[in-house]
Amino acid sequence: GPGDEPAGDLAGLRVLVTAGATIERIDPVRYITNHSTGRMGFALAQAARDRGARVTLVAGSTAEPPPPMDAVVRVESAEQMFHAVEDASCDAHVVIMAAAVADYRPRRVAEQKIKKTDGPAVLELERTRDILAWLGAHRRDGQTLCGFSMETADLVTNSRRKLVEKGIDLIVANDLSTPGAGFGVGTNVVTLITPDGQTRLPLASKREVADQVLTAVLRARAGR
Ligand code: CTP
Ligand code: CA
């Protein structure tokens, strides 16, 4: 947990963390989003900073304002988050995508409020860009990439598939069916998955999970 890690073991590293949820507008009064308070991402940013890293935080919609970092970029949509990550990732040694990025957005954003009618409504959606897959395909020399995975079933199989398909080094898998895990709680139960193996961590605070994730990132960097 906090305190067990050597102080300053991330000194000299530039770390980019994304946190919170994207918002995809439907019309001036409505939008699509995902559950996310941003707290896991904030805990990662804070832990990285405490361990000596220079931290850039890209934050979508969050329950509380982001903590001060070396740089903080606020974004709304997945497309805006993509551009912020594209900019900030070019000289980052470590990128951690803790944000809940919408997979789909409305194909058209209505300029005027959509009025209800008597019948059912259909909303046409299109895919957003997969930011983490883009990072995996455009990886800079010596860059380490970490993602998160939310699943309600087949946690390890599905999460390992994401690790491989996105071409990343570490995925932090969240089983939403486990008590104490997931949204709106201060704790988390996660499995850390790398190409070599996997470790299920016991129930821990988000800060403790953050420190374990950063230690696993350092281990992945050393093993390369
Ligand atoms: N992610 C991303 N860009 C997207 C969607 C997801 O960068 N457009 C990132 C998330 O930030 C997370 C990882 O990909 O680090 C996995 O997100 P998750 O939603 O669990 O998986 P998906 O690949 O989107 O697959 P699905 O939602 O279908 O399970
Ligand atoms: Ca998704």
The description of the largest β-sheet is: 8 strands, mixed
Shape: globular
Strand content: 25-35%
Order of helices and strands: EEEHEEHEEEHEHEEEEEH
Q: Please give the alpha-carbon distance between the first and last residues.
A: 25 Å
Tally of alpha and pi helices: 5
GO molecular function: FMN binding; metal ion binding; phosphopantothenate--cysteine ligase activity; phosphopantothenoylcysteine decarboxylase activity
Keywords: Decarboxylase, Flavoprotein, FMN, Ligase, Lyase, Magnesium, Metal-binding, Multifunctional enzyme
EC number: 4.1.1.36, 6.3.2.5
Function: Catalyzes two sequential steps in the biosynthesis of coenzyme A. In the first step cysteine is conjugated to 4'-phosphopantothenate to form 4-phosphopantothenoylcysteine. In the second step the latter compound is decarboxylated to form 4'-phosphopantotheine.
In words, what does this structure look like?
By secondary structure, the chain is of the alpha/beta class. It contains five helices and 14 strands. Strands 5-4-1-6-9-10-12-13 form an eight-stranded mixed sheet, sandwiched between helices. A two-stranded antiparallel sheet has the order 2-3. A two-stranded antiparallel sheet has the order 7-8. A hairpin with a 2-residue loop joins strand 2 and strand 3. Bound molecules: cytidine-5'-triphosphate (CTP) and calcium ion. The site of cytidine-5'-triphosphate (CTP) has 15 residues, from helix 3 and strand 9.
In short:
Keywords: Decarboxylase, Flavoprotein, FMN, Ligase, Lyase, Magnesium, Metal-binding, Multifunctional enzyme. Pathway: Cofactor biosynthesis; coenzyme A biosynthesis; CoA from (R)-pantothenate: step 2/5; Cofactor biosynthesis; coenzyme A biosynthesis; CoA from (R)-pantothenate: step 3/5. By secondary structure, the chain is an alpha/beta fold.
